[in-house]
């Protein structure tokens, strides 16, 4: 599903943050990427999500070589990947209600007709009940906002989900709920997962296997 080969990316003080790193995720597989803060795993996650062009190396997604990035990437490739970031406050437009946040990808791809049904379906999946969908980010907790960000990542039915420290800022009960929501989605769709983090216990329980950052460099 995803094949990263010899990726070099993200220069800082003249040196690459990621240097010749390789990682593969098979169809339907859940892979955890373990590493300390600042090692470069979030940069690699952005490369995997087609949000950051690497300086060297290749990215193959669902059997096709990736040659364009961000909005220049073909729609079929962009919509194959859903991504959830660590901080929901930085990932959500504070002016929008949660319902609008979840629906953003549908509107951006001209699928307005699906908005109501799909948003309501995902609100149930991630646990956004009551009037939460009608609230703005400042009116909800970090955990509730991250549920909306997860729903947004799933709204286009991606076949690969990239979770970059998705639960790092959340309490144990919210973490368990979000992981359960991801697994329900994966059981329904056989989607693959790349979960990035530093919590070994969580990733080893959640994923089929956990890859150590120190073992990935070429």
TrEMBL record:
- Xref: PROSITE patterns: ABC_TRANSPORTER_2
**Keywords per UniProt:** ATP-binding, Nucleotide-binding, Transport
The record's section on InterPro entries has: AAA+_ATPase, ABC_transp_ATP-bind, ABC_transporter-like_ATP-bd, P-loop_NTPase
Highest rank taxon of the organism: Bacteria
The GO terms this record gives for MF are:
ATP binding
Name of one Pfam family that matches: ABC_tran
Any idea where the ABC transporter domain is? 2-218
**UniProt KW Coiled coil keyword:** no
Task: State the family it belongs to.
Answer: Belongs to the ABC transporter superfamily.
What's this protein's name? Answer: ATP-binding cassette domain-containing protein
Q: Which organism is it from?
A: Streptomyces melanogenes
